[in-house]
Amino acid sequence: MADKEEIKTLEELEEKGKILREYKEKFRQMCQENKMIKGSTVLKLYDKIEEVQREYEHLDNKLTLMEYNFI
Question: How many structural domains does the chain have?
Fold first, then answer.
């Protein structure tokens, strides 16, 4: 049972990491382009990045705890 939970958590962690990289790349592209960007757009994207980062860290901590409990 623990193996399935660990695999599921690892898959969720990978998915959150992918989403986080996509948001960061979008943010980087927006900042590098020479066009006007509304501040609210930047703040919304930044909030999404922070939210996914928190989810990623939570999953990473959960996975680490599972590994310690396994040992």
Answer: 2
